[in-house]
Design goal:
Largest sheet: 3 strands, parallel
Number of strands: 3
Strand content: under 5%
Distance between the termini: 56 Å
Structural class: mainly alpha
Helix content: 55-70%
Strand order of the largest sheet: 1-3-2
Length: about 350
């Protein structure tokens, strides 16, 4: 029993909680089930793992670029806003619960494994459950299992036991299976039958928007078909559009904040503060905006690498182990489909909406 527990803990910590290697392992198993040559199996594993690592670099860079600006806005206007960052909240929760209840981390990990097992069971019983998606976004699974465990531990202290762990696992498994299953049709339409679904934080929103989108416009009226004056046609290029738009957004915000705030290390606790002795503030503004575009480009390259391998390899898992199933992956996997400017437009609209609500 101790050997099995140690093995499960090793798998959880090193594979399940490390999405790059988890995706790489799935690709390896999928290609092996498809009876691919050993060198193709190895190449697929490497490309999928490295591609996901590249995605993480891009996604992390986007967060680290924007987080200091939110912190500075909070300091400048005393708006009491918090960065909506699950990693920040998860870290704070872990510190609190580890001191109050040493069993917290172990409980969350066990619940995660139970939830993943339930997801597999629901897919295996697809003819009855109608669930087709296997949630494999490991870092999101860790966040959500820990969050639900935290809620149960704080709200119902009497469930800080085996029954509570099982309950959390069941909740997680049902949520992962059902919510990701709701994104299959929308994702397949977007990707042209890409063979995956979304397993992240916004599955219900994806389902809802997909249902009401046709009430607000026509499919052919997409971003790429917008008629722009000839001199604005350069904005059909994602790099140019993102760099220009972010220069405007960040430029306005950074001008309002000023160099004094952005150079204060007590305010910019996360990231590198502006150093007036080394760089002009206006160049710093442009560099910050362009850095955002760099990370967005990196993210998309990583997506293209691992999604193609995962989609091909999952055919083996789908045909041999879980017939008719789809992998539910990070929402960033969808960024390489549809209009190249959709992500930028969505980010801009979301940024405007947040600033309006905060104000």
């Amino acid at each position: 029993m101790e050997v099995l527990t140690a093995l499960l803990n090793w798998f959880s910590q090193n594979i399940l909680q490390n999405p790059a290697f988890f995706v790489g392992l799935l690709v390896l198993v999928g290609y092996w089930l498809l009876k691919k040559p050993a060198h193709e199996v190895f190449a697929g594993f490497v490309k999928a793992t490295v591609g996901y690592m590249i995605l993480n670099v891009g996604a992390g860079g986007l967060v680290t670029t924007f987080r200091p600006i939110l912190a500075a806005l909070n300091f400048k206007f005393q708006i009491g806003a918090a960065v909506i960052d699950p990693y920040f909240g998860l870290s704070a929760a872990n510190e609190k619960m580890a001191a109050e209840s040493p069993a917290f981390v172990g409980t969350a990990t066990t619940a995660l494994l139970i939830g993943f097992g339930i997801n597999i069971l629901l897919v295996a019983l697809r003819k009855i459950t109608k669930v087709r998606t296997l949630f494999i976004t490991g870092h999101i699974m860790v966040q959500q299992a820990a969050t639900i465990t935290l809620m149960v531990f704080l709200l119902i202290p009497s469930l800080r036991n085996t029954y509570g762990t099982i309950a959390v696992g069941i909740i997680c498994g049902l949520y992962w299976a059902i919510s990701s299953n709701m994104t299959v049709e929308a994702t397949q339409r977007l990707t042209g039958g890409g063979g995956f679904a979304i397993g992240h934080q916004q599955q219900f929103a994806i389902w809802f928007v997909d249902k009401i989108a046709n009430r607000f416009g026509k499919k052919e009226e997409n971003l790429d078909n917008i008629k722009l004056p000839s001199f604005l046609s350069i904005f059909h290029d994602t790099v140019v559009a993102s760099a220009t738009l972010m220069s405007i957004f960040f430029g306005i915000i950074l001008l309002i904040l000023g160099p004094d705030v952005m150079s204060n290390p007590d305010v910019i606790a996360s990231g590198t503060p502006y150093d007036p002795a080394k760089q002009d503030f206006y160049i710093y503004m442009i560099q910050t905006a362009f850095t955002f575009s760099v990370y967005l480009f990196i993210l998309m390259q990583g997506v293209r690498m691992f999604v193609s391998e995962l989609t091909n390899a999952f055919q083996g898992i789908s045909s041999k182990l879980l017939p008719g199933s789809f992998p539910a992956v990070d929402v960033a996997a969808s960024y390489g489909f549809g209009s190249p400017n959709a992500v930028l437009t969505g980010f801009s609209a979301g940024l405007v909406g947040q600033l309006i609500i905060i104000a």
